[in-house]
Write a structure and sequence with these properties.
The complex is a heterodimer of chains A (about 270) and B (about 60). Chain A is an alpha+beta fold and about 270 residues long. Helix content of chain A is about 50%, strand content about 25%. In chain A, the strands form two sheets. A four-stranded antiparallel beta sheet of chain A has the order 2-3-1-4, with helices on both faces. A four-stranded antiparallel beta sheet of chain A has the order 6-7-5-8. In chain A, a hairpin with a 2-residue loop joins strand 2 and strand 3. In chain A, helix 7 runs antiparallel to helix 8. Chain A is elongated, with a radius of gyration of 24 Å. Chain B has about 60 residues and is α+β, with helices and mostly antiparallel strands. Chain B has a domain of about 35 residues. In chain B, a hairpin with a 3-residue loop joins strand 2 and strand 3. Classes of the chains: A alpha+beta (about 270), B alpha+beta (about 60).
């Protein structure tokens, strides 16, 4: 058994093979990125040591963030460069590893039609992440119900003030949940009007986290300025209600490259 | 509006994008990051790669 394995970053059109070789990209652990061509597709790969990347050590390493962090960054660096060089890739998730080029060719051949359709779908486009977050430094708008409760609390004897205080907490929480839901829907509608595809990501259910909603958005590279305008519009409406917006990109299509071709909306 | 490039992404964001997404083949596992956030790791690709490896090895033998 060989002591070297092949790490697979992404699938691209075979026509980009020469450009990828010419770019002399450095991959994970310093390996040179090389295309493995099969038919009209290529897999962008680099050699990694079996001692680190065979199934058992890899599964162990995946739980070690100190090990994972620089390699995840290298994976993304390669895919970011490949996106610029080729104009469109199907990026793979971290950790697609093969014994050698034959395994990559088998994958490319077996899923050729699917990969070609995905590439056509992603060509000339990039993925952006739009996050709606609660801004701690901006107080949420005070409702009439809350103002009344606070006035009552100010005038009430201690026992009743305590109960009203509890009530106030409940109302605050309910109003915040409603406000979060409304802003998320407004952002979704604005993005759907301005982007080619939108996917609402599932969030970790944790009240302490600032994120209220997160969207993956696919846009043509020529429409990125328009996306920024849409996001600025969302922020104008959101900031007065105690939210801020983060925009991150351009990413290779990690989300949309992996979705079924029909499925554009979920979550 | 704050705008970030992938090079500015936090580790959690990067790992979420790279391990939870990408071409999905099957299965996933959960790990704890710094004991706080739960994220889902795409061991799917590892498993799928293993399947491919097994097929390749069977062909070779």
């Amino acid at each position: 058994m060989s002591d070297e394995l092949l790490y697979l970053y992404a699938i691209a059109d075979a026509a980009a093979s020469g450009a990828i070789v010419a770019a002399r990209l450095t991959g994970i652990d310093g390996g040179r990125v090389a295309p493995v061509v099969e038919g009209r597709l290529l897999g962008a790969t680099s050699v990694v040591p079996a001692s680190e990347y065979d199934e058992a050590p890899l599964n162990e390493h995946l739980q070690d963030l100190d090990w994972l962090a620089p390699r995840a960054a290298a994976h993304q660096d390669v895919n970011g460069r490949l996106l610029e060089i080729t104009g469109g890739i199907v990026p793979l998730a971290f950790g697609a590893i093969y014994r050698g080029p034959e395994g990559v060719r088998t994958l490319l051949e077996a899923r050729a039609t699917d990969f070609r359709e995905r590439l056509a779908d992603l060509d000339g486009r990039a993925e952006w992440i739009v996050s709606v977050e609660r801004a701690d430094d901006v107080p949420a708008a005070q409702s009439e119900a809350l103002r009344q409760l606070e006035a009552e609390i100010a005038d009430a004897p201690p026992g009743r003030a305590f109960l009203l205080g509890k009530r106030r907490e409940d109302v605050l929480r309910e109003e915040r949940q409603l406000s979060d839901a409304v802003i998320a829907v407004e952002a979704l509608e604005a993005l759907e009007a301005g982007a080619e595809r939108v996917y609402r990501e599932t969030l970790i259910d944790d009240a302490a986290l600032a994120a209220v909603a997160r969207f993956s958005v696919l846009v043509d590279r020529s429409h990125e300025a328009a996306l920024r305008d849409v996001v600025r519009g969302i922020e104008r409406a959101a900031s007065v209600r105690g939210y801020r917006i983060r925009l991150s990109g351009p990413w290779p299509a990690y989300r949309f490259g992996g979705l079924s071709l029909e499925g554009t909306l979920a979550g | 509006m704050k705008e970030f490039t992938p090079a500015d992404a936090s580790l959690l964001e990067l790992v979420d994008r790279l391990l939870h997404k990408g071409v999905v083949l099957a299965g996933e596992a959960t790990i704890s990051v710094a004991g706080v956030d739960l994220i889902y790791l795409g061991l799917n690709v590892v498993l799928a790669a293993v399947e491919t490896l097994e097929r390749a090895e069977r062909r070779a033998s």
